[in-house]
Design a protein that fits this description.
- The protein is of the alpha+beta class.
- The protein folds into three domains: about 160 residues, 2-Layer Sandwich (Beta-Lactamase), CATH 3.30.450.20; about 80 residues, Helix Hairpins (Orthogonal Bundle), CATH 1.10.287.130; about 150 residues, Heat Shock Protein 90 (2-Layer Sandwich), CATH 3.30.565.
- About 55% of the residues lie in helices and about 15% in strands.
- The strands form three sheets. Strands 2-1-5-4-3 form a five-stranded antiparallel sheet, with helices on both faces.
- The longest helix is centred in the N-terminal third of the chain and has 53 residues.
- It is rod-shaped, with a radius of gyration of 53 Å.
- The two termini are about 45 Å apart.
- It binds adenosine-5'-diphosphate.
- The site of adenosine-5'-diphosphate has 22 residues, from α10 and α12.
């Protein structure tokens, strides 16, 4: 049942049906039209011929007073002849509607009053064709040439069996030809529909081959523009999936590596304590402090990873509310100032105007605090960090500028990648997971904004963030 439904819904079946209908319908119409035209024309010819003969005979009948005398060998002979030739019956009716002569000699003396006979008395020639019983009836007035009076009516009824026989013969042939045509068209329809849908079948097969893992590369089918379109869309999709898969694998191996590093340090520290006998208490204290620091680091990485995963989820997870950005920034500065003071870095905020925007406060705060923390971290003693807030009618802008160590030009493209840290040896002196900027970028993208970096090594770095004032639910970025 399902298979049948699948077949009925298929493009192949539809093409087949269309060819069948458009191939067969004209044949039907043509056959019916031709047969109808033939019948009409044949009846017309017969009617014309009979009425001409009948009129001639009627003139002679009137001239010879045949209706009264019924004596004229030539007329009687002519009537018999006509009735034989046309396989018909001739009846003569006088002006009292009485039948005076009948070639079938059945109804003589009887009265006949029909519509056609009355019309004929009024001088009209009537032609009637009965397609059901197959006969033509012609009624002609018999007019006295001198007085122009209608003195009687001649009624000729002629069988059209011969026309019917021809029609039957033609019908049979037409049916045979049509049956032949139907068979030919069905064969053509099957062949064409199969051939035309083949590229789609090939495309589906090639897709499922890739899906089932039989093939790695998706080739696609370029026969039609449509299949080409589908193929290239599929190719792009597969490419994206591959990249996604690679990124995921990279991420997993990076995460494992990063999580393993503190564990390895802890293991080394613990082993070295266990391996020595009579270790002084101070050693224990020192090693345990180091182990504690490694645990903190592990914790930090896990926290950062969790934040990143949250950012990566869809916008369903976003908690948007109209927020006073100035107040948010002030709070952020208050939290970070002690860290700056510790590093002897001057931290200032410059707000150019009041800004209210639709944002997820928690996520945006995290992003900006990562930027400012970096500006403090990668700074020098007596350095400064300038944070500014500005807006136009569409977006608000936050810039975080420092006069710290700067970022080498070739690293600027990569700093937003997960776990990337510039110059490992240098970074080792400064705590970090390499996830801060990845988190910041994800949060900004979640707000449909943009983040840029400008940096000169040994001079300083500026990060600029642009976020729309109004949040929009667009799915495409
Ligand atoms: P981390 O946890 O190492 O700070 P981030 O993703 O926040 O990771 O930053 C990635 C790298 O970019 C850092 O390791 C650092 O080398 C560099 N970086 C980020 N911000 C700055 C800055 N303001 N000045 C100089 N270097 C920076």
């Amino acid at each position: 049942m399902k298979k049948l439904l699948f077949f009925l819904k298929s493009l192949r079946f539809r093409i087949f049906l269309m060819i069948l209908i458009f191939g067969i319908a004209p044949g039907f119409v043509l056959r019916a039209g031709l047969l109808y035209a033939y019948e009409n024309r044949a009846v017309e010819v017969d009617e014309y011929e009979i009425s001409t003969q009948a009129k001639l005979l009627a003139t002679q009948i009137a001239a010879n007073d045949y209706l009264d005398t019924l004596y004229s060998e030539s007329i009687t002979a002519q009537m018999d002849q006509m009735s034989t030739i046309y396989d018909g019956r001739i009846i003569l009716i006088d002006n009292t509607f009485r039948i005076v002569a009948d070639t079938y000699q059945m109804d003589e003396g009887k009265l006949i009053v029909t519509e056609d006979v009355i019309s004929a008395y009024q001088g009209e020639t009537m032609l009637t064709y009965d397609s059901k019983y197959h006969y033509i009836e012609v009624t002609v007035p018999i007019v006295n040439a001198d007085s122009s009076d209608t003195i009687g009516v001649m009624l000729i009824s002629v069988s059209t069996d011969s026309i019917e026989l021809n029609l039957q013969y033609l019908r049979q042939w037409a049916l045979l030809i049509e049956l032949f045509l139907v068979v030919v068209i069905i064969v053509i329809a099957i062949a064409v529909s199969t051939h035309m849908t083949k590229p789609f079948t090939r495309l589906a097969r090639s897709m499922s081959d890739v899906q089932n893992g039989y093939e790695n590369d998706f080739e696609g089918v370029r026969t039609y523009s449509e299949t080409e379109q589908i193929s290239s869309a599929c190719g792009e999709m597969l490419q994206r999936l591959k990249i996604l898969d690679e990124t995921r694998q990279d991420f997993v191996s990076n995460v494992s590596h990063e999580l393993k590093t503190p564990l390895t340090s802890m293991k080394v520290l613990a082993d070295s304590l266990i391996g020595q006998e009579d270790v002084p208490v101070e050693f224990y204290r020192e090693f345990m402090t180091d182990i504690g620091a490694e645990i903190d680091r592990e914790n930090q990485i896990i926290n950062d990873l969790l934040s990143l995963v949250k950012m990566d989820k869809t916008s369903a997870n976003v908690n948007i509310a109209s927020t006073d950005i100035n107040a948010m920034m002030e709070l952020l500065m208050k939290r970070l100032r002690p860290i700056a003071r510790k590093k002897n870095v001057d931290l200032v905020l410059e707000s150019y105007r009041p800004v209210t925007a639709e944002v997820d406060e928690v996520k945006l705060t995290l992003a900006l605090s990562n930027l400012i923390e970096n500006a403090i971290k990668y700074n020098r003693p007596e350095g400064w960090v300038h944070v500014s807030l500005n807006a136009d009618h569409q977006d608000f802008f936050v810039t975080v500028e420092d006069n710290g160590i700067g970022i080498p030009e070739d690293a600027q493209d990569q700093i937003f990648e997960r776990f990337y840290r510039v110059d490992k040896s240098h970074s080792n002196e400064i705590d970090g997971t390499g996830l801060g900027l990845a988190i910041a970028r994800s949060a900004v993208i979640l707000h449909r904004g943009a983040i840029r970096v400008y940096s000169v090594p040994d001079e300083g770095t500026t990060f600029t963030v642009r976020i729309p004032l109004k949040y929009s639910e667009r799915t495409k970025l």
